[in-house]
Specification:
This protein is mainly β and 112 residues long. It has one helix and seven strands.
Length: 112
């Protein structure tokens, strides 16, 4: 059997930064090691805050490569009033994009 580098995980959305697309409590099936592409929902590790404290792992939309550095990814929130994204912390190194969402499983299954 061939080696499959992809691992699937379940992730529960917390916070309101991805509304209306995703809401707190939504359950996502994500694929670790999946290729990153623009307009996909991703699980990311944002850089530490201004005090050096680590931020929690977050769910954001990958909007494309950073125009200033095409090796890095730009991520955004769907709700402009809540949350943190690349507009506030800059682009992310590819290793900071931890997984790509495959679908929302709960409350109503659908592709994201």
């Amino acid at each position: 059997m061939p080696y499959l580098p992809f691992r699937f995980r379940l992730v529960q959305v917390a916070g309101h930064s991805m509304e209306p697309t995703l809401c707190p409590g939504d359950l996502l099936l994500v694929r670790v090691g999946a290729p990153v592409r623009p307009d996909r929902i991703a699980v990311v590790q944002l850089p530490p805050d201004a005090h050096g404290q680590p931020r929690p792992v977050a769910v954001k939309r990958v909007t494309g490569h950073d125009p200033a550095d095409p090796t890095r990814w730009w991520v955004e929130r769907d709700n402009p009033r809540v949350g943190v994204d690349s507009w506030l912390v800059g682009s992310l190194h590819p290793t900071e994009v931890l997984a790509i969402a495959v679908m929302r499983l709960w409350p109503r299954p659908r592709r994201v």
